[in-house]
């Protein structure tokens, strides 16, 4: 007598066989990268969900796609093993002859008509180290408003920021000589507001260690994890860096545009403008005070930065939101990190909505946590400022002239260790 096979049993048997055959393709592959190999070439050919591992040793590269040593456009896990150093090659970024005007610091101008020209002198000292790659930043400010038909005047300097030793220079409406072959021109001789401020930077191009998204990618890039006990070193000591005042600056990790569900954890970052930056993008015209004209917003969200180390005595650490990249940034956690910086360590900034800054240990020669321009729905708690016996605050909340201030975050138990005060 022939056994009868039930159709349901047949279906289940076939399903089990199909799953057994298909399981290997469901498993994420691991790709090991030796020093000297191209991580970009390997990442470009892996499948979404795969894992790439930088093995111990020096991985030294120049910027490639979208000015990054490694550009990420798919779901992937990146591990830097202990002993792996992912470093920008020395001397691949040099001072550029084109200056960039920064007006974002001051949105309260009646006129914004400054132009720069001439030919910047690119000569530099024949030495290695930071002296060979120093930026020149001009500070220009209107120091008087003309009356009775007299022109407005401006003050300027090309040394430390905000220092303008050249005073009361009458605006002619023509090109006027400054220094290093640089000229400026105001279109209007009158009508400026006293105190209007511009910076003009002659500096190096931007570069990134790991960049996720280029700002206006159409589709979301999601589920990216950067982890491990290795180091990302942007080698600013041996490369020209952006000035820190321009639109695009260096970072060990940049999250930009339609990017979701990113975890950055455990790694050490050093010698850069910023260790981690996150922000959205907007295609509309940028208007004073953070407004934008009609356009499309490319928003980033769900970013976690935890247990990382920033060792950056000449730069800053974490930037969350950016006034020159005006898409939204939503739901960011920057918790339990350690940082040593020469400038502001942690900066919730423009168009940031929903954030945690909890349990960080901060050693900073500048601000520890600076909420700067409009952000909202923030919690800042249990952060410890160390190595400061001057009583500096842990948290500062304000905005430049003409910008909406941040909504006050919820604050609890933020302490300056040596002054033993809660702020």
Notes on the structure:
Helix content is 6%, strand content 41%. The protein has 423 residues and is mainly beta. The protein folds into two domains: 30-91 and 205-422, Pectate Lyase C-like, CATH 2.160.20; 100-202, no CATH class. A ten-stranded parallel beta sheet has the order 1-2-5-16-19-24-27-30-33-36, with helices on one face. It has a ten-stranded mixed beta sheet with strand order 3-6-17-20-25-28-31-34-37-38, with no helix packed on it. The longest helix is centred in the first third of the chain and has 20 residues, at 7-26.
Layout: helices, strands, pairs:
Elements: H1 7-26, E1 30-33, H2 39-45, E2 51-54, E3 57-61, E4 68-72, E5 76-80, E6 84-88, E7 100-102, E8 114-118, E9 136-144, E10 153-157, E11 166-170, E12 176-177, E13 182-186, E14 197-202, E15 208-212, E16 221-228, E17 231-233, E18 251-256, E19 259-265, E20 268-270, E21 274-279, E22 281-282, E23 297-298, E24 300-306, E25 309-312, E26 318-320, E27 329-335, E28 338-341, E29 346-348, E30 352-358, E31 361-364, E32 369-372, E33 375-381, E34 384-385, E35 395-398, E36 410-412, E37 415-416, E38 421-422
Parallel strand pairs: 1-2, 2-5, 3-6, 4-15, 5-16, 6-17, 15-18, 16-19, 17-20, 18-21, 19-24, 20-25, 21-26, 24-27, 25-28, 26-29, 27-30, 28-31, 30-33, 31-34, 32-35, 33-36, 34-37
Antiparallel strand pairs: 7-14, 8-13, 9-10, 9-14, 10-11, 12-13, 22-23, 37-38
